[in-house]
Amino acid sequence: MLEHPSFSEVHLREGDEILPGVLFYKGFASANTIDTGEALVMLDTGAVTDTNALHEAVRKCRPDTRLSAAVFSHHHVDHIMGVGPFERAAEAKRRPRPRVSGPP
User: Fold this and answer.
1) What is the pTM (predicted TM-score) of this model?
2) What is the C-alpha separation between 94 and 24, in angstroms, rounded?
């Protein structure tokens, strides 16, 4: 069984790797980034005020791993604005842009 502190014992900050390969970001809204071993997948991507700090936090932990997808849990603006820096980075490196998915 994987041992980790209970949620009440954890004081999460911007850009904490809460488990190996799982990055938690809490700004105005939260975003979670999962390293699949081949690429990154994000669940929600934060608010417009979080975009640069989120991008920097992800790049600090995974400097060269591309973001392949972002999944939006819902379409509120505080959960969907963080893909832009990753799209620009993908275009600059001539990589595919992240695929974005969400509820209809």
Assistant:
1) 0.82
2) 27
